[in-house]
TrEMBL record:
<keyword id="KW-0472">Membrane</keyword>
<dbReference type="InterPro" id="IPR025857">
    <property type="entry name" value="MacB_PCD"/>
</dbReference>
<feature type="domain" description="MacB-like periplasmic core">
    <location>
        <begin position="16"/>
        <end position="248"/>
    </location>
</feature>
<comment type="similarity">
    <text>Belongs to the ABC-4 integral membrane protein family. LolC/E subfamily.</text>
</comment>
<dbReference type="Pfam" id="PF02687">
    <property type="entry name" value="FtsX"/>
</dbReference>
<protein>
    <submittedName>
        <fullName>Permease</fullName>
    </submittedName>
</protein>
<dbReference type="InterPro" id="IPR051447">
    <property type="entry name" value="Lipoprotein-release_system"/>
</dbReference>
<keyword id="KW-0812">Transmembrane</keyword>
<keyword id="KW-1003">Cell membrane</keyword>
<dbReference type="GO" id="GO:0044874">
    <property type="term" value="P:lipoprotein localization to outer membrane"/>
</dbReference>
<dbReference type="InterPro" id="IPR003838">
    <property type="entry name" value="ABC3_permease_C"/>
</dbReference>
<keyword id="KW-1133">Transmembrane helix</keyword>
<dbReference type="GO" id="GO:0098797">
    <property type="term" value="C:plasma membrane protein complex"/>
</dbReference>
<dbReference type="Pfam" id="PF12704">
    <property type="entry name" value="MacB_PCD"/>
</dbReference>
<feature type="domain" description="ABC3 transporter permease C-terminal">
    <location>
        <begin position="282"/>
        <end position="406"/>
    </location>
</feature>
Amino acid sequence: MMFLSLKHLFSRKKQSILILVGIVIGTAAYVAISGMMLGFQTKLMDQLVNNDAHIRISAREELLTKESLNSFSEAAHVFWTIAPSGRKDSEKIEYPIGWFNKLTNDPDVTFFVPQVNLNVIFNRNRVTQSGRLIGSDPIKQEKMSNIKQYMIAGKFTDISNSGNHIVIGKILLEKLGSRLSETILISSGKGAPQPFKIVGIFETGSRNIDESTAFSSLSDSQKLRGTPSEITDIAVKILNPEEAKEKANTWKSSSKEKILSWQESSASILSVFKTQDIVRNSMTISIIVVASFGIYNILSILVTQKRRDVAILRSMGFTPSDIVQLFFNQGLLLGIVGGLIGLVLGAVICWLMGKIQIEPGRIGTSSGRMIISFDYMIYVKAFAIAIGATVFSSILPARLAGKLEPMDIIRSGGQ
């Protein structure tokens, strides 16, 4: 039966090649588009999950209103000309020791890093630049993020040495016109600006971070802020990042602090990933559907053209199921061959795209090439889609051929 199927395919070479081209293009397109998009997503997911806390506990920002002061006994006799407004006080974690004990005893927490996040102004001569200063334990901060691999000068742990040392983003450094080992002034808005020596430079590839962020030790940031022993954030890593949202929701029910999981803080990026997946699958399905219609039409025409052969085969003792198998095998063979060629072509396209030079650190590798995913599941899904499409589009013509009766074909003068 397989021999007859192959003979039918080779007897209509042009039609067979057209079907193959459709399947190959659909399969290769799925592999290439998936490899590019999933590579891009893998890069961003690595930055989202491994470059920052899985859960961030931040000081809640409370604003003053007329109702905020109603708890005082004299409040009933107070009539405001101008209602109180603004933030109550500087942000801080109200009871950090309690959080430290809770996080230490939680089996899902791998480690945590107390931090001070400050909005500051960097100053060098007449150049000023607003930005953010993050104060933390440098050794824990290295474990919390990938900052160590982004260092392009100096060592991140050098900020642990006493004496106001900072590690600064490359673009921020360029904007200030400064250089390594130079001292700049940093102001938090409270008190006089303080000198900080630049002991390291990093480049993450994210412009928002590189042009506005610097790191210092926790004690130096607390001193600049004028609030020793206070912290504004606790960055937490847990065993399973996928469970960060559920863990954050559990903690929210028993705390006044602002608690955000990485899924919540990156919701807009994750929604972009879903949109990309929808676009990727839609494009591939469209190509496969067109190829499926081609298979259906060509096999239907083939059944009509081979009515005489079907009559002969039935007269020789072939059963209707054998005839169905004959035409079904043709679609299956085209799906297997077209799918395999499509996988190879898709892999070659992915390999070529991986050679494309782009700006280092953005969506590419450290060597400045595009990140392409070669996840084996891409190839498994592509092959399954190719086989599924060809099987589905071959069933109807094959069943039509199986219903043909020899006497009906002879009476109708079929060829």
